[in-house]
Amino acid sequence: MARELGANVLGRPIVWVVLGLIALPIVVAWIRITHFVNFLFIILLIRSGLSILMDHPRLYRNDHCTPGTEWIRFTPVEIPPDKVWTAKEDARYISPWVALPGYRHTIGVARHWHFLPALFWFLNGVVYVTLLFVTDEWDRLVPTSTQIIPNAWAVLVHYATFHWPPKPETLLFYNALQQVGYFAVVFIMAPLSLLTAMAMSPSVVNHFPWYARLFGGRQSARSIHFALLLGYLAFLVMHVSLVIATGFAKNMNHIVLGISGNGSNGAVLGLLGIGFVGAVALFAHWLSWNRPRVMQYFARFVHTGIMRRLLFGRLVPRAQYTREDISPYFWPNGKMPESDEWRGLAADDFREFRLEVSGLVENPVSLSLDEIKALGKHEQITMHHCIQGWSGIAQWGGLTIAKLAEVVRPLPEAKVVVFNSFGEGLYGGEYYDTQKLENALRSECILAYEMNGQPLPHLYGAPLRLRVENQLGYKMVKWVKSVEFVASEKDVGKGHGGKNEDDEYFDLIPEI
Question: Hey, what long-range contacts does 169-176 have (CB within 8 A, 24 or more apart)?
Fold first, then answer.
């Protein structure tokens, strides 16, 4: 390979020849290193993806997610018709031997293990593809003739009939089926995984509604994303099986060292690399269950600085749907309030309810529902994106936080708005969440008191629920009882921005 790479710089300006010869050992090493780095990240992505999937183990072709319309489900449970069945109850157990972190209701940590490796997997892919073209290695992966299709089929027939096809020197060439397979993984499947992931982002979909439609909608994008996961699994199984079946030692020398021969050095180093990936998997499990806050902090450091500030946090929600788009079913979620205070208010249709608005404001107020409605109503038909994976479209009517801010006049030091609930978190304690003031002042951030043209049902958050259309559903507090303007989310609860962030280590990038 070194002779081939060296020959490729002949005929070029002398400076490129010199630089190429100097960089050649480094480049060749990085091509092989990125192979193992990719293996590590793809294992983390697959395992965490399975954990996320099982938090809503149903896949749909439409964005309404009506029970019974899923094209496949990974749960034996059918929605009981005689009781309220929340999306949280529908989550399923999955073994930590298979998924990361596994078990049940661990989607916050699972998302950390999905999005952090995804970012570095993408960067590793950029390095790998760049080096492919810098070194002319792309000749081995990119088909240049349509003859590759019948040739690949011929090779597949050999394998299917348990006969090895004519084998080239695989250090320099791949057979047609290998070339098609590697090209598909690198240049089709990997980009499509990234693009379909973006189509599930509430900030992207609610800013560019046309984007998700490129894949048939948000839920279709989720299904395609899952199909790609299966594709990676199938590729790994076939790839590893053929490496073993066609000469493990020789193939590992090709893969790890870039040399021919049947020596054991490549196999030893390769097994050490695989062992390292296994050790990382064990460490990831330990970290998930013993130091989950470390994962949350690291994710906040990486994503808040890179992804939220530079991209997702800048996308203003503006997608609007029609009444014909409203979902026939909207998954309920969260624990209904059990306090005597809420039950008493609900029994009287919240006539005695008063919203307390306080904190760092010039004019604290206590508002009844009639007084809230008198301040004006904003209506929107938008898509709800749950962190578990389901979606639904509904019409909401209510008071914008911007209008409420005009009434109470926040002080300059007020940077965060806290929404407190009558309900409790999964592990007890009053549910709350926070919004940066700048995001809360956007037009589609409202305190809704209507749903689909009717008074907000008790199940969906009466008397008031927050709607923040560029974020995931766990940020949209239901059964709101008070609003407080504060200097920082660190001054509330455990200081992480919300009840789910405090107790379930949910991420601080709800726009994704």
Answer: 169/260, 170/251, 170/254, 171/1, 171/254, 171/258, 171/259, 171/260, 172/1, 172/4, 172/140, 173/140, 174/140, 174/141, 175/151, 176/148, 176/151, 176/152
Measured over the CA atoms of residue 64, residue 67, residue 68 and residue 70, the dihedral's sign is positive
Q: Reduce the DSSP state of residue 82 to 3 states and report it.
A: coil
Q: Phi first, then psi: what are they for 334, rounded to 5°?
A: 90, 160
What integer pLDDT is reported at residue 167 of this predicted model?
Answer: 64
Q: Which of 16-25, 145-154, 162-171, 308-317 has the highest mean pLDDT?
A: 145-154
Higher pLDDT, 254 or 396: 396
Q: What angle is formed at CA 110 by the lines to CA 432 and CA 121, rounded to 5 degrees?
A: 125
Considering Cα of 299, then 195, then 329, then 102, what sign does the dihedral take?
A: negative
Question: Backbone phi, then psi, for 481, in 5-degree steps?
Answer: -115, -25
- Poorest-pLDDT segment among 158-162, 276-280, 342-346, 396-400: 158-162
CA distance 424 to 481: 12
Taking 90 as the threshold, does the pLDDT of residue 352 lie above it? yes
What is the structure's pLDDT at 26? 55
DSSP bridge pairs for 371: none
User: Which whole-number Å values give the CA distances from 278 to 283, 285, 445, 492, 497, in the listed order?
Assistant: 9, 11, 45, 39, 34
Dist CA 384 CA 131 (whole Å): 41
Per-residue confidence at 161, pLDDT binned at 50, 70, 90?
confident
Tell how far CA 414 is from the center of its chain: 31
Q: How far apart are CA 219 and CA 58, in angstroms?
A: 10
**Nearest-5° angle of CA 288, CA 333, CA 325?**
120
366 Cβ contact list (under 8 Å, min separation 6): 354, 355, 356, 357
Model confidence, pTM: 0.87
Residue 310 pLDDT: 62
Judge whether residue 409 has pLDDT over 90: yes
Q: Which of 134, 357, 333, 171 lies closest to 247, judged by CA?
A: 171
pLDDT of residue 138: 82
Burial class of residue 428, CB neighbours in 10 A (0-12, 13-18, 19+): exposed
CA distance linking residue 245 with residue 357, whole number of Å: 69
Q: What share of the chain is helix, strand, coil (3-state, %, to 5)?
A: 50, 15, 35
